[in-house]
Amino acid sequence: MAAIKEESDYDSSRSSLTAPDSRRSWISDIGSSSSVSVCSFGGGDTPASSCCYKPHKANQAEWEAIRRVRAAAGGRVGLEHFRLVRRLGSGDLGNVYLCQLREPWSTGCLYAMKVVDKEALAFRKKLRRAEVERDILRTLDHPFLPTLYADFEASHYACLVMEFCPGGDLHVARQRQPGRRFSISSTRFYVAETVLALEYLHMMGVVYRDLKPENVLVRGDGHIMLSDFDLSLKCDVVAKLLRQSKPPPAPPAASSSSHVPSCVPPTIQPVLSCLFNGMNKCHAKEGRRANDGDGDETEQETETEPEVVVEPVAARSKSFVGTHEYLAPEVISGQGHGSAVDWWTLGVFMYEMVYGQTPFKGESNEKTLVNIIKQPVSFPRIAAAAAASGREWDELQRAQDLMSQLLVKNPKKRLGSSMGSAEVKKHPFFKGVNWALVRSVRPPEVPPKPRPAPAPAPKKVMMMSKKERQEPYNYRPDERFEYF
Questions:
Q1: Does some domain include residue 414?
Q2: Helix, strand or coil, per DSSP, at residue 166
């Protein structure tokens, strides 16, 4: 079990967007400082350029533009290379701005820059959260997770340059839907992509802990992207090989314990685990050929189908972090939680997508927490009445069954707690989903392409003639001066 440092931060808001605690204007401070660095704001020695290779973004125009700037600037990217367009929003740790590169050939490349005040975060004892978020973003390379193009420091501010999602978030998108809720087919699409994103995070040893529609952004192509990793838990994860044995018809009493599934650490890389199935089948055929004359031996032969499980089930934290309506029961009790909290929040996330509300919301935050601990999950009849056809009714029933298994209060009995995404993806709700080609499916909605902000027009310089320059200046008492 990895040793996890206890955290004391607590986000009790419905949304994580709050004003940062800063008493100074970051634009004026950066403008008065010429010190720009690419060092980590925790004092580390890992430069941003060390994580500049992202295979999934190799052909992206925004990534190529950053590479050109980095090559021309000697391997570094700083604030002087960007032009701020407008503010997109504010979070608990800082502000997010829409920005562009100053080079004229990159006018179509838009970025989102997150700016945090290190001094303010250090005063609030939240600097470590910002450092963890930066470290996580540096390692991510997935179609449904953000790409960190560059990170650098300017004065006492730390800047993270990431992807810009013009489609907003799913909370805003839900408000535009009929009845302010998504259809079952749209919900399946967004939940499937979210499952793949959580699967990747868990494989990287990251427990997200802040899944909600406000943190699921919509890219320009309509696919989703998770955001805000300041509440994430970073831990160690070890791949395990689950050997599931098929019991024979009449097992002897002495060997009954050998048919219980066991977790065995793999001795080879997980990516080669597909070879186990072929090897086991070959061994099984050899055993049958060797025992052709003995029917009893062939009858008691079993075949195993190993499956690699990469899930940080050993991760434990007693931090009380998250949003009230999405907190898992084990987080509220304070007895320690792990990766199972992400599957609980997936159930709440899915519930809100289908019904337009969270399942345990009360009149106050305290009542909400009580409902999460004691109240069983129930489903409104509104969506049931809207499902006119038999097919829609069957899909709704499967969706409710998945949500019921995700919203199990005991984390050990919750779907996904032991085998992670492998259990969730096998649920009948995802029948027909080709997990390998999800990113090729047309999304329910594709946002319109944003128009890049025009470059500022050059200021016209007023030229004086030689005669005007030589004439003395005539001061008039009624002349007014404006100071800037």
A1: yes
A2: coil
According to DSSP, residue 49 is labeled G
The yes-or-no answer on residue 210 being catalytic is yes
Per annotation, catalytic residue among 210, 228, 230, 342: 210
- Looking at the domain assignment, is residue 346 inside a domain? yes
Element of type H or E holding 142: none
Residue 92 — φ and ψ, nearest 5°? Answer: -70, -25
Beta partners for 217? 169, 225
Asked if residue 14 belongs to a domain, the reply is: no
Determine the Cα–Cα distance for residues 272 and 178; give it in Å rounded to an integer.
Answer: 46
Under 8 Å between Cβ of 400 and 154: no
Number of compact structural domains in the chain: 3
pTM equals 0.73
Query: What residue ranges of the chain have pLDDT lower than 70?
Result: 1-53, 238-309, 312-315, 318, 382-389, 450-464, 466, 468-484
Give residue for tokens 């920005």: 99
Report the amino acid identity of residue 251.
Answer: P
With respect to residue 20, please indicate whether it lies within any of the assigned structural domains.
Answer: no
State the Cα–Cα distance between residues 14 and 323, nearest whole angstrom. 6
Structure tokens at 196: 């793949």
CA–CA gap between residue 161 and residue 111 (Å, rounded) = 7
Q: Give the chain's mean pLDDT.
A: 75
Q: Are residues 147 and 184 in the same domain?
A: no
DSSP letter string, 117-167: EHHHHHHTT-HHHHHHHHHHHHH---TTS--EEEEEEETTEEEEEEE--TT
Q: Are 368 and 324 in contact (CB under 8 A)?
A: yes
Q: Tell me which residue of 28, 423, 86 sits closest to 244, measured CA to CA.
A: 423
- Provide the CATH number for the domain around residue 140: 3.30.200.20
The residue range of the domain holding 188 is 170-237+311-440
**What CA–CA distance (Å, rounded) separates 432 from 388?**
22
Q: Are 28 and 118 in contact (CB under 8 A)?
A: no
